[in-house]
Amino acid sequence: MVSKTNPRAPYFPVPESTSAPLAGVGQPSQTDCLSPLFALVDAAAARLQTADAVAAAKYKSGSPIDDPQREQQVIDTMASAAAAKNIDVEYIKSIFHDQMDATNAIEHARFAYWKLNRGTAPAPDSDLPALRVTIDRLNRIMIAEIGIQWDALRSPSGASYLDNARNAVVEARRLDALYERALVFATHSYCRQA
Predict the structure, then answer these.
(1) Which fold is adopted by the domain 39-187?
(2) pTM of the predicted model, to two decimals?
(3) Which residues contact 7 (CB under 8 A, 6 or more apart)?
(4) Staple partner for 35: which of 85, 102, 153, 161, CB 3.0–4.6 Å?
């Protein structure tokens, strides 16, 4: 399958770098005011954008994509953080399972592309421990934003807020089709009415 915008490009193009810097969450813009969920969704997108760098580091080292021990550690840490903020722990577990599943899907897509196109795997910019520091920071931002926006997430307008936030983040970060689909999956269970 090929890209609709460039028939010579692979369907899952491998960018030289992620679409936005991972050092911070997206830059504020006029689109932020469309949704109180912008900062939350932007942090989720920034976390997804670590997938290329993580995949490159794992590919080079021969490490497997799936790491159930690390995933359980993240779930346990986020559940504890949620409990400390009086946020529904089962909700948080579900959110972070979705986030990790979406990230793993991107990593699997990259591995598949690199295996079928030898010599295309990029040299990793960072090692896994350094990347995990970034991921852990983004996880904390997500928990903080969920706590701040709990009422918006549970309101009748939640789905509309979420759609507006996704659209704004996709535009602000210039996400490609794979990342956009991953973001939709990672955030699909954010809004639950009380």
Answers:
(1) Chorismate Mutase Domain, subunit A (1.20.59)
(2) 0.83
(3) none
(4) 161
